[in-house]
Amino acid sequence: MIKLENIFKWYNVGGTRSFILKDINLSIEQGDFVSIMGPSGSGKSTLLNIIGMLDEPNEGKYFFMEEDVLALKPKKRTALFQSYVGYVFQSYHLIDELTVYENIETPLIYKNLSGKERKAIVGDMLDRFGIVGKKDLFPAQLSGGQQQIVGIARALAATPKLLLADEPTGNLNSKQGEEIMDLFKQLNEDGVTIIQVTHSEKNAEYGKRIINLLDGQIKE
Amino acid sequence: MFKNHIKLTLRHLWRNRVFTILNIVGLSIGISACWIIFQIVDYEFRFDQKHPDAERIYQFINREEREEKTADFAGISRALPITVKNEIAGVELVVPVYHKADLKASILNEDKEEIRVFEQPKYQVSVSESYFEMVPYQWIVGNVKTAFSSPKQVVLTKSRAELYFPNTPTEELLGKTIAYNDTSIMSISGVVADLDFPSSFNSQEFFVLTDKDWNNDWWGSFNSDDNLFVKLQENVVKENIINQINTINYGHRKEYIDKYGKQWYDLIPLADKHFTATFGANHPTTDHSVLYGLIGIALFILLLACINYINLSTAQLPNRAKEIGIHKTLGSSPSQLMRRFLGETFFITFFAVLLSLIVSSFALKMFADFIPEGMGSFQNYADLAVFLLVLILLITLLSGIYPAWLITRVQTANVLKGQVQNTNGQSRLTLRKGLIIFQFIIAQIFVIAAIIIGQQLHYTVNKNLGFDKEAIVTIDLPAKVLRNPAYVDKKFVLKDELVKNNSIASVALGDRPLDNSGYITSVYNISDTGKVEMKISVRFADEDLLDLYNFEVLAGTNLTKSDTIREFIVNESAVKAMGFSSPKDAIGVHLEMQRQSYPIVAVVKDFHVYDFKKEIPSTVFVNSKRQLNTVNIKLAASNPKHFQKTIGEIEQIWKSIYPNAAFVYKFYDESIAQLYESEYKMSKLISLATGITILISCLGLFGLATLTSTQRIKEIGIRKVLGASVVGIVQMLSKDFVKLVFIAAVIASPLAWWAMNKWLQDFTYRITIEWWMFVLAGVLALMVTLFTISFQAVRAAIANPVDSLRDE
């Protein structure tokens, strides 16, 4: 599903190159559950952003579903991203002005789904994650764990094949974290490919495979 | 420490140059307006302040009350000065000032030949020695005693002397001669320095008041050109003087006053003179309400500019929150932070003042029409410097305090955790939106006004007037040519000579068809049922005038060549006024004018006889040799480039026939446009106001757009991650502002409609206000809005969400 070849990412700081990612080669099959680990500044988030097409490498090749992503036009890339990828953030990034229901609905609007379809999908999601009763609340009225569940529901609303999670439990207490990780495991068993970035050994264990990053390089 | 502080401030301003420039530009508009208005107001209020003993100087004014109506004016009876001088106790100086009606001045050389001619020099008066005892003039050459020793003498101010005798040293001017109205020759007996302060006494050329002027006892004759000033002795109350003179006046005018109503004299102090337009026929005056209005406008614009500054700087606050937080953790006290911010505001204001000095000097030139004459010559630099200093401090405090206070409220801990707090909550945003709507209402009213005035002016220029006005030059024959028996018939020679020229299509003598001046008389339509009187405007014309202007003749034939009036050509309105249904019916009808009866020989289609404010009156063309006072010349060339050459040839011919008369020509279409001069002036002012309000509104809008896109940056990032397109985001951000503009348009349109409808009522012939004018103004406002916010919106929309969503 994902194939990264010789990926480099650097910043120019005062004339010298400061490498974030150095020669990353990685392939991830459909149905996999990968945990990316590493200390702060090792390039975990950047790698995830490149996989999620939010960022571009300076060098290297990236194939997603057999497509050469870097050669695609931005419009096509957005379309590809929209139909296959969902994103979950450490600090949830819900839209404060929108209710739970509207937050989940937003990606569907951008996918140009009809009102009826949206209603069905959002209803399904609310049901699946047990937050029907909270649908008219605003993010500020929810606990961190509940907000993250809404974030995941929103990410899954567009039925992505790939779920990218950047420290999904980083802002949660351990009990909430466990719930989220159980949810991820469940999703993976349902066939969703998951790549998560985490600091926690325990959470990493939920994955089928662990990739360790150090100074921008993969350490097997 | 202080130096370090300045360095940091300048560095900060440089780093945020976009905002710095916006702030400087915004404030400098406000400051420029204030600055110009201050100069005007300061100038006006300083009038007559520096006169020695000003509190003892009064002007005599003339009051009349008849049938419960009062009529006041400055003209006094010429019997008054001598009476005050001889019979009234308590008066130190009696100063009659009799204004002259712009005597033509010709400068002669030793051989008595004209070397320079000034057709209408203003500010000429007849005075006596007392004038120079009251007004503190410095004598450069001559002195009061000798200057007024003979009636054939004239005293000039230095500026007038330099105008008449450029490059001649003042000392050599004594005894030089000037011929007035070609008849009386005067020699210069003195030159005085111009006053170095603004004064109601603005005359520049002083003649000697003759004994005949003094010894006069026409108590019942007044002329607004004849003014009388007095300087009272110390500790004399003016009521005392007024009572004395009115007793005498009543003695002379008993019959009239008892029969028709009261007429008496009053005194106004010099301090009030400049602000009393009724008594200022020959002196510069203004009105307190105008000055206070100007001060109000200045304060209003300044307030808008300050609010904009507050808007823009609070908009920047979220971006600075982190920096402020760090300063706080490093131990800066709130008062230190406030001082730092006020320092920034001070610098910005200072630069804005520098910029506004440049802006206002341009504005003063561009809008010279609106600046009081002579303002530039009496700058009081100390006053101006104090004003600027006070202005800088005032603006710094006014616009700096609130943002500075907000800065101290930044919550350090949250800021450093990376959470940009909503320092600008919903309520403040609403306040700011309200302000933007308000600004846009004002801007839209001005835009609509500018469109409608522009349309009306366009209409006045382009509407079919009923005749052609292009490529026509008119020359008024000077009075001296018309009065001089030797020249009286030369106008026909001139016409014949002009016609011979190939570049001239045709020449006619007679009145301009559209001219606000003109002669109106009564004619009588005599029929079986009696005599019907009808007011009619008279246009004198020779046999070529109708053709030259290409009038449409509805019936009948042209005028014939004639020495005296023999026949009438009337317009449609006259035909209607006489009650005929068709022009043909009027042909042959006789009308009586000044006890003579003449037949109507033709009817022309209605044309504009006066400007568009007046209705087309019944009009008659008559041919009378003596009354043909204007030469109308139709040029053959259609290309304006060739006009100047032809006019040069016309001047040659003119000079050969009237060697001593000035050649003054005017293009007729330009003369017509000049009828609407005050409207053009107004249009210029409205455009200026439009520009200022739009500019200030846009600055505010830009601030608001920046603020919202900063506040919503996280939301925008999320939406992009969720798949929103750049266009979609820009649309989302613009929608709110479009709403604001729409609300403003809805409020502004009826207000503007009401005001402009009122303005248009002045015109008998006017455009109708149409819906598209409002739509156009709205669309313009919308375009300006979108243009202003697009920069911020697009920037926010194309930003990489990775940056805005980064957590660490």
Explain what this protein looks like in three dimensions.
The complex is a heterodimer of chains A (220) and B (808). In chain A, 35% of the residues lie in helices and 28% in strands. Chain A is globular. Chain A has seven helices and ten strands. Chain A has helices spanning 44-51, 74-84, 100-110, 115-128, 144-157, 174-189, 201-204, and strands spanning 2-13, 16-28, 33-37, 59-64, 67-68, 85-88, 162-166, 193-197, 209-214, 217-219. Chain A has a six-stranded mixed β-sheet with strand order 6-7-8-3-9-10, with helices on both faces. In chain B, the strands form four sheets. In chain B, strands 1, 2, 4, 5, 6, 7, 8, 9, 10, 11, 12, 14 and 15 form a 13-stranded mixed β-sheet that branches. Chain B has a six-stranded mixed barrel with strand order 18-19-24-21-23-22. With 808 residues, chain B is of the alpha+beta class. The A-B interface holds A 40, 45, 49, 54-55, 78, 81-82, 87, 89-91, 93-97, 106-107, 110-111, 154, 158, 166-167, 170 and B 714-715, 717-719, 721-725, 728, 800-802, 805-808.
SSE arrangement:
The complex is a heterodimer of chains A (220) and B (808).
Chain A: E1 2-13, E2 16-28, E3 33-37, H1 44-51, E4 59-64, E5 67-68, H2 74-84, E6 85-88, H3 100-110, H4 115-128, H5 144-157, E7 162-166, H6 174-189, E8 193-197, H7 201-204, E9 209-214, E10 217-219
Parallel strand pairs in A: 3-8, 3-9, 6-7, 7-8
Antiparallel strand pairs in A: 1-2, 1-4, 4-5, 9-10
Helix pairs in contact in A: 3-4, 3-5, 4-5
Chain B: H1 2-15, H2 17-45, E1 57-66, E2 69-73, E3 76-77, H3 80-87, E4 91-99, E5 105-108, E6 114-118, E7 124-127, H4 129-134, E8 139-141, H5 144-147, E9 153-157, H6 158-164, E10 177-180, E11 184-192, E12 205-208, H7 211-214, E13 222-223, E14 226-232, H8 238-260, E15 262-269, H9 270-273, H10 288-329, H11 334-366, H12 381-408, H13 412-416, H14 426-462, E16 472-476, H15 479-483, H16 490-500, E17 504-509, E18 519-527, E19 530-540, H17 545-548, E20 553-556, E21 568-571, H18 572-578, H19 583-586, E22 590-593, E23 596-604, E24 619-622, E25 630-635, H20 643-657, E26 665-667, H21 668-674, H22 677-711, H23 713-721, H24 726-760, H25 771-798, H26 801-805
Parallel strand pairs in B: 7-12, 9-11, 19-24, 21-23
Antiparallel strand pairs in B: 1-2, 1-14, 1-15, 3-13, 4-7, 4-14, 5-6, 5-10, 8-11, 9-12, 10-11, 16-25, 16-26, 17-25, 18-19, 18-22, 20-23, 21-24, 22-23
